[in-house]
């Protein structure tokens, strides 16, 4: 039995709906996986940065006061950036990944709607074939033919009603899909912009905190550490003893008739370097 024009139109409609559902199922699934991988990478970066913050803090405790303070402030700012990154991860999971993931169930429902419609159309086709066979086998039996016509009419009405419902639900599905893509992508950009804006602000403070380290003051502290207090005390004692010895020697020479020599030495000009 050849297909009627209406049947061909409905078959084409079914193929288009099936193609649309398949595309959504495939590409929404792939985008969901890609976004999930993006978020996992971001979470791993957060974990690595947390380790870096810890290492900076450990090393800062071994440094001179100004550098220690600058490094501690730098680490605190870096830790704050990672707090914002954690919020970024959580928001991306809630606003991007979960909505994409929900399309698995949505697509499943649309497949069931399409299957219901196809079943109704199949029943209609079978009833149409049954009517043709009845007319051929019992052309004069109006009761049997009338019954077959009634069955076909009911099948046709069911198929028409279910097809109309499918058109409405697929139309709404398409509208919602467009809205969801706009919202999901918009939320992704908004979350990323919020993170980077906050990160830029805190990174600026981190840069300032490390650049404000007083190098000269810390160098003095370092140089002082090379000469501990007990060493300086011993050096002062040696210097004091040397001065006493020189004073005694000078007094002795002064009483031994060498005043003229000392006076002569005082008139010599010291060489300039």
From TrEMBL:
Cross-referenced InterPro entries: AH/BAR_dom_sf, BAR_CBAR1/2, CBAR/FAM92
Gene Ontology cellular-component annotations: centriole; ciliary basal body; ciliary transition zone; mitochondrial inner membrane; motile cilium; nucleus
Coiled coil: 114-172
The encoding gene: cibar1
Protein's UniProt name: CBY1 interacting BAR domain containing 1
Origin: domain of life: Eukaryota
Keyword Cell cycle included in the entry's annotation: no
CDD domains: BAR_FAM92
GO biological process: cell differentiation; cilium assembly; spermatogenesis
């Amino acid at each position: 039995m050849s297909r009627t024009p209406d049947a061909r139109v409905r078959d084409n409609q079914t193929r288009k709906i099936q193609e649309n559902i398949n595309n959504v199922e495939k590409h929404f699934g792939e985008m969901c996986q890609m976004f999930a991988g993006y978020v996992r990478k971001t979470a791993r970066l957060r974990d690595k940065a947390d380790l870096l913050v810890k290492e900076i803090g450990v090393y800062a405790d071994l440094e001179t006061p100004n550098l220690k303070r600058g490094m501690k402030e730098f680490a605190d700012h870096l830790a704050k950036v990672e707090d914002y990154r954690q919020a970024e991860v959580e928001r991306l999971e809630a606003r991007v990944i979960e909505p994409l993931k929900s399309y698995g169930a949505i697509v499943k429902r649309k497949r069931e709607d399409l299957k219901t419609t196809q079943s109704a159309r199949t029943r209609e086709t079978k009833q149409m074939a049954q009517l043709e066979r009845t007319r051929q086998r019992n052309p004069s039996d109006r009761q049997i033919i009338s019954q077959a016509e009634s069955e076909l009419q009911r099948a046709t009405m069911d198929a028409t009603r279910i097809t109309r419902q499918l058109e409405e639900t697929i139309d709404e599905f398409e509208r919602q899909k467009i809205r969801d893509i706009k919202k999901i992508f918009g939320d992704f950009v908004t979350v990323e912009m919020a993170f980077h804006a906050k990160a830029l602000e805190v990174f600026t403070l981190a840069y300032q905190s490390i650049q404000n380290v007083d190098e000269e003051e810390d160098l003095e502290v370092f140089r002082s550490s090379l000469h501990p207090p007990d060493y300086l005390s011993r050096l002062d004692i040696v210097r004091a003893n040397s001065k006493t010895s020189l004073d005694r020697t000078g007094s002795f020479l002064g009483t031994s008739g060498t005043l003229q020599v000392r006076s002569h030495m005082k008139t010599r000009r010291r060489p300039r370097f």
